Structure formats: C-alpha cells, structure tokens
Amino acid sequence: MLKRLYDWTMHLADHPKALWALAFVSFIESSVFPIPPDVLMIPMILARPSRAWLIALVALVASVLGGLLGYAIGAFAFEQLGQPILESLGKGDAVAEFNTKFNDFGFWAVLGAGITPFPFKVITIMSGWTGMPLGVFLATSLLARGLRFFIVAGLLRTFGEPVRDFIENRLGLVATVFLVLLFGGFVLVRYL
Q1: pLDDT in tens, the chain (192 residues)
Q2: DSSP secondary structure, the chain, as one string
Q3: Has the keyword RNA-binding been applied to this entry (predicted)?
Q4: What is the pTM of this model?
C-alpha cells in the first residue's frame, strides 16, 4: 500500500498542475491548513531535480502570501477565525500569556517557525493579533521561508538520487519517521 501511495505521489509530482497544487498547499498551510508543503515539495523535486529552484520559489511566494492571510486573520478576525484555529492546535489557553511576550521575540518567533516544522500558521495569526509591524513580519517571513525551502531544494537537487533511492528502499521506515515527526510537531505545539 505504501509503495502504491509513493508511486502515485511521484506521478502527481510530475503532473503539469503540480506547481499550482504546491502553491495552494503552501498558501493555506501558512494560515489554516495543518500539513506542510514539504509533503508535495520533496517528491516534486525528487521527480524533477532540474526544477528545484522554481519549486522552492513557488512554495516561498505562496507561503508568504498565505502568511499575510494568517496575519490578516489575526489582525482583523482573531475572535471569529484566529482563536478557533489556535484552539484546534491546543494553543487557546496560552494566547493571552503569549501575547504579552510575543512582540519581544517576534522576529525570532517568525524566523524559528518559518524554518522549522513548527506550524507557521500559529505565528502568522499571532503576528497579526499582537500587532507586529507588517514590514518586520513580511521581511522575516521571506527570510525564514526562503531559507527553509531553498535549503531543502538545494539538498534534494544535489543529493536527490541517493535520497530517492533511500526512500524507495526504506519506504516503511521513511513513512514511520515522517508520521512520528508530524505527530511530534502537533504534540510540541500543544504543550509549548
């Protein structure tokens, strides 16, 4: 079953509309969606390493635009949209305490969340809600997401074939590690 799913994903990664799908996932991941764009980006680069920089650029632009939507949710619709999203991630109770500290560490919070698997939407919504200056938010988002996506693209472009061989030969292990990391990220968000 995993092999069929992997083959299907690799086939879709080379589809003519794959960049649009990546843009959509990158956009909504930055404001409401729980699955990171890496799920699409990695197979897309493995399927077509020559397009690694384009794939990273699409993910970057869409993610930052989605981050602006998250910022707007926090700034203009926190009670209606932002709070329920954060509560679904287990962060509802920590919001008030977090608000008082957030802007002191805002640059580092956006940078850290933008580079790591920490759900970026938490930071984008909080940035808008706490009134982080939009210029600082935008510049930091560009830096963080650019680093994340272009480092992944560069590594996969350079070492793609061995990575692909490793994944294909150890698909069960890779799937298990991915699920553990994904679940661990949600647990981390809930209890931080």
Answers
A1: 545 655 666 666 677 888 898 898 899 988 877 778 887 888 888 888 899 999 999 999 999 999 999 999 988 988 787 777 767 766 666 666 666 666 666 667 777 766 666 677 778 888 888 888 899 889 999 998 898 899 888 888 888 777 666 655 665 666 666 667 666 665 655 555
A2: -HHHHHHHHHHHHTSTTHHHHHHHHHHHHTTT-SS-THHHHHHHHHH-GGGHHHHHHHHHHHHHHHHHHHHHHHHH-IIIIIHHHHHHTT-TTTHHHHHHHHTTSHHHHHHHHHHSSS-HHHHHHHHHHTT--HHHHHHHHHHHHHHHHHHHHHHHHHHHHHHHHHHHHTHHHHHHHHHHHHHHHHHHHHH-
A3: no
A4: 0.74
